[in-house]
Amino acid sequence: MSDGVDRLIQVMDRLRSPGGCPWDAQQTHETLTAYALEETYELIEAIESGTRQDMLEELGDVLLQVVFHARVAQEHAEAPFDIDDVANAVADKLVERHPHVFGEADAGSAEEVHARWERIKKETKARESVMDGIPVAQPALARAQKVISRAARAGLDVRDPAGVGIGPQLLALVARAQAEGVDAEAALRDATRDYEAAAREAESASAPTARTVTEGSPT
After folding, report:
1. Is residue 163 part of a domain?
2. pTM greater than 0.85
3. What angle do CA 21, 23, 24 make, to 5 degrees?
4. Is residue 210 part of a domain?
5. Tens-place pLDDT, residues 144-156
6. Are the beta carbons of 189 and 143 closer than 8 angstroms?
7. Helices 184-206 and 140-153 meet at what angle, rounded to 10?
8. Cα–Cα distance between 104 and 2 in angstroms, integer?
């Protein structure tokens, strides 16, 4: 199985090296960002409505983005890394976050496994909030769902005046926004930011406070 990956790495190296492709040679992490996003969306489309061949092709395009970025990263003057570093880092992460497989922890239910994953991730990344790490550039609907999901899994009591919506209601709201000259994406981003702020506030309020030890009090 690794023969194909090794071949792809060699092809990418040839394209990037002197005498290779001028376009590939001038790319940076920043210029490749849009392609990573585009290829991810195309993979999702292939999974949802394409054929097996479509999915195979789009998975290859996503893999190419990883290999391309890793090849560019090799050339960094101060902090280079390569595809092996990338693979080992994610393998280490999987082992660390699956103590029920690679350690002595009990597996429990799928929900318990997910909760353990989030807890370990928060500890290892030194995150202060369950809301940390949600990409701001993520599409508004997806980000809204992620924020609400994180708040629910953390058991936060968040004031939610919007209630729960479903497909037809969302479509009707978009149509209303269009009629009223409102940018629906921007409006949802604003509402999601407000919800996130309320979630962070609820999280802070529910966090245990350190007991103050005064002079002369028992320790």
Report:
1. yes
2. no
3. 65
4. no
5. 888 888 888 788 8
6. yes
7. 20
8. 30
